[in-house]
Amino acid sequence: MQHYISNHFLRHFVRLTRQNNLDPVELLKAVGLSKKVVTQEYSVLPLRQFVTLLTHTRNQPRGKSIALLLAQQQDISVFGPLIPKIEELISMGLASGNVSIDVIGHSLGFHPRKLQRLLAKEGLSYSQILDNVRQQHARQYITHTQFDMSSIAYMLGYKNLATFSRECKKWFGGSPSQLRKMTDL
Fold first, then answer.
1. Co-location of 10 and 69 in the same domain
2. pLDDT digits over 139-163, tens only?
3. For the chain, what is the domain count?
4. Predicted TM-score (pTM) above 0.90
């Protein structure tokens, strides 16, 4: 499973490379990264590609000091596997309905198609992850809260109770009310 890092670790990359008479755009291109990695407010990049960029930069004349300065900042944010980050973003966006692959992909700094390709490499689809997160939250809300079923449906991003009930039957083999009754025993 591939690991990712926040682009915040590169926030001084452009300034440092220019101070050392290096072209940051050329360095990025040399390792297959676009300029937006350092210009976007928030995005992620594969950890392997980040390490390749630092190695390539270090191998340039005057590049050793840049790699050292970036490493000394100790501002590294490795996300680890991407799936838990996607699940977290979906969880935060469920009630507002901001869980489309477009929204989640852009939140991670990926074009939706690229996110689909990354997930496909892991043998997953975005809809599978969304369904899994909804199922986990549904079980939690039904069995551990007293929210009415319409409220739970809304909190999970469903437009109506009927759709939520159909999904519960698929997930749990019964209606939300039946699941709640079984856990009340």
1. yes
2. 999 999 999 999 999 999 998 999 9
3. 3
4. no
